[in-house]
Amino acid sequence: MVGNVGEWTGTVYDRDRLHYPYRLDDGRDDATAGARLRVVRGGCWLWPPELMRAARRDFFHTTDRFDWLIGLRMVLDIEAV
Q1: Residue 61 falls inside a structural domain
Q2: What pTM value is reported for the model?
Q3: Is residue 1 part of a domain?
Q4: Beta bridge mates, 7
Q5: What's the number of CA atoms in the CB half-sphere (13 Å) around residue 34?
């Protein structure tokens, strides 16, 4: 989960909406939102060990391209195939 690259998520970075419990209807995971900041989870090999945890959140501008720091996880719903 951590140590290779940080993982982009679809979550819009908004300090006011990143609290728990998670609510599906609060808009933080709206893929159509024109948000410029999105959440990155986990950590990469370059970051200090204390930042290497799956629960860690950071954010980056969506136009930033750190190919060696940030990647993404692909998911396939077997039932939908």
Answers
A1: yes
A2: 0.72
A3: no
A4: 41, 71
A5: 0
